[in-house]
Amino acid sequence: MADLKDEVTSLIGATRVLIFSESWCDRCKKVKELFESLNIEYKAVELDQMENGAAFHDAVADVVKQRPLPVVCVLGNVVGGLDETLAAHADGRLGALLGTFSQNGPVGDTSVYDYDLLVVGGGSGGLACSKAAAGFGKRVAVLDFVKPSPQGTSWGLGGTCVNVGCIPKKLMHQASLLGRSIQDAKAFGWQVSEDVQHKWDVLVEAVQNHVKSLNWGYRVSLQDKDVKYLNAFGEFVDQHTVKTVNRRGKESTITFGYVVLATGMRPKYPEIPGAKEFGITSDDLFSMKTLPGKTLIVGASYVALECAGFLAGVGFDTTCMVRSILLRGFDQQIAEKIGSHMATEGVRFIRPAVPTKVELVEDGPPRRLRVEFKLLETGEIKTEEFNTVMFAIGRDACTQGIGLEQLGVKMNPKNGQLLSTYEQTSVPNIYGIGDVLNGKPELTPVAIQAGKLLARRLFGNETTMCDYVNVPTTVFTPLEYGCVGLSEEDAISLKGEENIEVYHTAFQPLEWTLPHHDENTCYMKLICDKSDDERAIGLHVLGPNAGEITQGYGVAFKCGATKKDFDATIGIHPTCSESMTTLTITKRSGTDPSTQGC
User: Which residues pair with 536 in a beta bridge?
Assistant: First the structure.
């Protein structure tokens, strides 16, 4: 026993985060999930998988004076079991122990500065954070400046989501859906002219008018909350000082106690001739006054597929050039189903391929561009002409050239995203929220939630952290894709294939019956952990209004719903969502999940 106790003591002293656990233990799993959600590495000692596990458990109990598992130790200190660890996380003691977070902040008296808080970036997260801080009576400023895209596009207050992201994208997606609805209307008795046409300029003007109304509304809301709006570019002088330059070239210096970086990300261009000279990105598409015409979209991200979907839906000849897989990071079975459906809706795919050059053939309008590209399977070089070439190959964080490097702020060298814990960077008074953070979901509601909670912790003596686990989202492709939790690939990787049960079905929306759309295109699956009472760990829906469906199930995931809970829920008939409450076919069974009628 003495040797085992020495081994336990040595492990505790030599390991930053150590968890004594049993692989089947639900409470042990929950404490591991906590550290995983915080991106904190840990070592788990699974006692039930050790030949001398019982004796080792006795030694652990003697050393830490606690027998129930899990037992969490951090930097040689015994934190305790699940409840103690959760409590330490909630009140900031866990972060303080790891040297990552101080509950009351590292600044102290902020009255000596011009502002208690400076928020850099006027997107959804930055605005939410600034208004929440102002609600505590703090002096707050928002510094926002949009550098024009290579094609000269810029926009107002509100960030990517409002100006060149979620809002205009969803409106144009709706325009595309309405086109399909007009055709479907014939099956419901409507006499529809065969000569129905779409006017791109009317759509763009309406979308931009709505966006501008939102820009104005955000400025008014800042004024109402007594938040100072500074439309200027800022560069850090030190960790409490920023030099600003406005559009007229006037320089100013402001000081602050805390700063929250909410600068977001901007689209990448490939390093090929002609890309920046002749290509556009999503920064430019939604305000294009000229017709896109024959369009090539390079990329397979959700941005690429969403834009390809609505462009094809309103009548433009649209091609996607894909290097490898669709929707990297999402469930790949669903991703391939999306690609197949988009192909039937008129989107052409060149895959696998990469562009190598973009040349101007003739200035427009319409402009003619020649794209040279390489087919990766054969190495063949081909060319084709397009009117518009849009790149959607990823994004870089807006953290370069503003002085963060000289302050010692640590970043991911690949994309410039901030390395952080509890939104706090390597410089104690500098925080980040939203897309600018490394390893966090790049979604508007995430930034808003993180911004509000950070302001409450810094100024309201609150301790609640942003929970980045089980965040629902939706891809607005022609057939929408909603998901929450793990993809099937990730579930198998994390839990083991033998511990995963996948319930699935194809389904046909009732609205699709009269127009005779394919009855097995829509699909849903629920991924359950067999080792944890079939707890739901992944939900995926491919079908109309998938976002509306998934949002509700996001609450169920937060509550830890199991398959029994889904089965016990009575569905609403006739809806698509009710199929999630009647799933019986498992992938393991090999039974065909095709729809069988009402």
Answer: 528
